Amino acid sequence: MNMANWQTLIHEQLEKDRAQATSLLQEWVQSPSVQGEERSIQESIASRLAEMGLAVDLWVMEGEELLAHPYFVSPRTVFDSSPNVVGVWKGQGGGRSMVLNGHVDVVPAGDRAQWSDDPFSGKVVDGKLYGRGATDMKGGNLSSLLAIQVLQKLGVQLKGDVIFQSVVEEESGGAGTLATILRGYKADAALIPEPTNMKIFPKQQGSMWFRLTVKGRSAHGGTRYEGVSAIEKSLLVVQAVGKLEKERNDRLDDPLYEKLPIPIPINIGVIEGGKWPSSVADLVKLEGRMGVAPGEQMEDAKAEMEAALKQLVEIDPWFAEQPVELEWYGARWVPGAVAEDHPLMEILHNQFTAVTGSRAVVEASPWGTDGGLLTALADTPAIVVGPGVTQVAHYPNEYIELNDVFRCAEIFALTLIEWCGVEEESK
Amino acid sequence: MNMANWQTLIHEQLEKDRAQATSLLQEWVQSPSVQGEERSIQESIASRLAEMGLAVDLWVMEGEELLAHPYFVSPRTVFDSSPNVVGVWKGQGGGRSMVLNGHVDVVPAGDRAQWSDDPFSGKVVDGKLYGRGATDMKGGNLSSLLAIQVLQKLGVQLKGDVIFQSVVEEESGGAGTLATILRGYKADAALIPEPTNMKIFPKQQGSMWFRLTVKGRSAHGGTRYEGVSAIEKSLLVVQAVGKLEKERNDRLDDPLYEKLPIPIPINIGVIEGGKWPSSVADLVKLEGRMGVAPGEQMEDAKAEMEAALKQLVEIDPWFAEQPVELEWYGARWVPGAVAEDHPLMEILHNQFTAVTGSRAVVEASPWGTDGGLLTALADTPAIVVGPGVTQVAHYPNEYIELNDVFRCAEIFALTLIEWCGVEEESK
């Protein structure tokens, strides 16, 4: 059977399943799986995978190997209420395997007043399904699940394994996916349907959080010249960080970044210092996020920040006496990069064009995903492409276009056929 | 009797009273009269003034006239636990009157760990009396009280009235002294023994607190170019305020300010903005203190700040869209200025030289005092000079040199004789 025929069959089957699948996404969105509250949705997903005949693994991640791992980042160390789920659809052998990875943790709904409806309503209006997590990324997860389900319904037997991963902790830096890797799950490639507006992101920007402590010396505001203002010194630090950002971006020549004003930004998001209007501030804390280029080692990026801060003494000798303290803390996402001529890229492009009638846009993501971990640690090249709406992720009135969920499912199903291969008898 | 004879008598009497006076200062320091806790010391001072035969007025300030007064500044509006005290030593008539003003409120002791001893110990070691308030300004208040007492003991009858004022709320902007003025107390001149290291401050810097709100526009840190960083905009605001400070100080030509690097500083003491390292900060709050020159109208200083912030649009059009918000809040001290050829200056100089053997240093204070209110509102020219140690005011291990307390008392007593005049029979 040729791919065009597969496409017709898959499309028709997905149309038949549309109402039921939409209900399932509503159910998922109505389960408010914010950090620490993921057990309910994960158990329900595990049951469904079991019903579909997959080999299901639901477990609570723990242990020294995980917690002491250099890539482990989480605000917590106990995950009892947040199990991971993996379901393996075993292939017949002789084909390439594929991970379909997605996270079920969602960011908090935030200020209820900014939502037009209940943040976890799952309401469908004009083809859009609303609610926290609809776009980031339960809609994408549904595309993955439907891709498997539709192939099963059509009696397809793939040669390679398909490993469906429903992970936790992506929003905090990827401990869930790290745990799947440490548990041994890997494949020849991975797809992650994060909300990309159906753009293909073979490369993903990594990022790490940092904290800078800038010191001054206190004095009365009326004799402020007797002190050293940590606020004034912070201006120099912010400028130095800006200079480093420019240097790092100027030397990037990846054409994927051509359209981005600042491909790997360094954002200082928090400033806080001083305690009294009429005292000279003796301490300022700056917190920010440093973008890491695909292919760049995080340690190298760290070293550049360290060097930039050391150079401050050339601008102001005060920094010799009181060097800026640098701390890497909180969240961290490993950058990811898959070559644009990777065979999966060609397959994706072809199926995208077949399904949508147009050529996919290829970009590098401006944020980190679990793809970096899969690529860097599990030798599983990961490509990020999904139906969610980038602009509404993490925002009030988050929604997803249902049409895109089903188009993505269609593309993924066709991609699985091409990537994993199909047993002759099932054709 | 000539002044030299008076000096001998006064000096000898003060020596006799030294032990008792030192105990009294210990008692005062041991009464921790932080804001809201001044009743105990004020009642004890009122009793003492009554025993000395002064007409005593102890009252709790209140009422619309005070609370709605343009110079009223306080974090509170109810002062039940903080009465004011005034004692009038009525003169025989025909002489100039004098206010001796001092505050009993002390700033909090702060971190106990930074004190070598109990912050309210009143302990005397090597001629220094230790404790919060010893220098700022109970030691000075004792000098004033002793000046009256020693004259009484010597049987002196002054022609002019001496008005001893023991006020609250100086540390919060002067509501206590404002209340004495509204109650009708005024005089031909005033002395305020704030901690000046016995320097004479005919002029005092005023100050006002302000709050600036700088706006940005939020965005994800990975696409920070889609937002506008309120932190980056704040740098421009801090620079604009610095430029204004320079302009204001460059045009000051008062020789009293010659030795000060920045006579009327604008101090930005607090910065706070942004909530998340990987988000673009959409709001930054800056809080500071603007120095006001002696002789300058506070409204003029405010207008200059306003104008400087308006000029920001010339540097960055963003400020046309989102102007910086300016708010005057919290504490405020009116500047004060007495001409250097004021007759009280000459008397003070002469008595200072007579008592200490050297010429007094004349400067302008880098901070506000209640003198500004007395000069501006009560037509009572106020000069600030006192025995406290400027450097330890508001600091841990605050102390005062007892010798200076008694020298100041001697100078004040002699000054009262010259300023208020003495009845012939008492000579």
UniProtKB/TrEMBL annotation, chains A, B:
Family of this protein: Belongs to the peptidase M20A family.
Keyword Zinc: yes
Alphabetically ordered keywords of this record: Cobalt, Hydrolase, Metal-binding, Zinc
Residues spanning the signal sequence: none
Peptidase M20 dimerisation domain ranges (all copies): 204-313
Keyword Ligase included in the entry's annotation: no
Protein's name according to its UniProt entry: Acetylornithine deacetylase
Superkingdom as given in the UniProt entry: Bacteria
Biological source species: Brevibacillus reuszeri
Cofactor(s) required, per the database record: Co(2+); Zn(2+)
